[in-house]
TrEMBL record:
Belongs to the AB hydrolase superfamily. Epoxide hydrolase family. Keywords: Hydrolase. Transmembrane segments: none annotated. This is AB hydrolase-1 domain-containing protein. The keyword Glycoprotein does not apply. Residues 27-259 form the AB hydrolase-1 domain. It comes from Vitis vinifera (Grape). PANTHER family: EPOXIDE HYDROLASE (PTHR43329). One of its GO terms (molecular function) is hydrolase activity. The keyword Hydrolase applies. SUPFAM superfamilies: alpha/beta-Hydrolases.
Amino acid sequence: MDQIQHNFIDVNGLKLHVAEIGSGPTTVVFLHGFPEIWYSWRHQMIAVAKAGFRAIAPDHRGYGLSESPPEPEKASFSDLLADLVGILDFLGIDKVFLVAKDFGGRPAYLLTVFHPERVLGVVTVGASFPPGPSVYIKNLPEGFYILRWQEPGRAEADFGRFDAKTIVRNIYILFSRPEIPIAAENQEVMDMVDPSTPLPPWFTEEDLTAYGTLYEKSGFRTALQVPYRSINEQFNKTNPKVEVPMLLIMGEKDFSFKFPGREEYIRSGKAKADVPNLEITFLPEGSHFAQEQFPEQVNQLLLAFLTKHV
């Protein structure tokens, strides 16, 4: 971890934090989800650097050590795409491999379809290209966590009862379960986790402190806007097909795999209609955080893909 360097660069009027390790000729950019920051890719960054690649992991705007936009409630996925392009331009990098999970898959997808000349290949952990979550959640009840967090003020009131470390702790425990997080009618999402519940065995108190410290700085305003309140953002792209090589690492105990219609889309081969060069590997015990839960397995799959397509 000590070898990872931390830099701040000016992109689109904001100071964005970028963690970096390695000096190889080929760059791998890691895009985090929620409730994560660059740190969620720590195992993979070190592994690809040792294999001769340059690893870069930004904190999205408003996350971790990256500056928040002046009006977080107006942040969008278009901003994240512009930030990603800006980071590559600032660093003078023409083409990259992208590694993404959770909502980090959306800016990865957008860069791939709008700027395919800049993408060598894509690896996602649990995030399929397209459709996005909005397609799958239409038939879920109102207690579904995304619907709750889309409601103005509701998550703010729920989160406001706890410190940042407890919020991250609860979400990590909740999202590590195989069941879709759905609160009861008179229950808040944070109350779905009993305070006595232990952390997942692969997530240490040291890890939790790292996350908690960074969310203490950033808060959750931007995080609630992107992804949850921007989930239905539309993009004008006539051909959404992804032509670059792609690997999907899908944990079979990732709760998002149970979104209505999603497993069928992935297993049936329909996903390959949108991504012709798609490979899929299933991790039978993999949760929503497979890259932290099974770092060695994910690293092996990632390095095999990179070596094949470099």
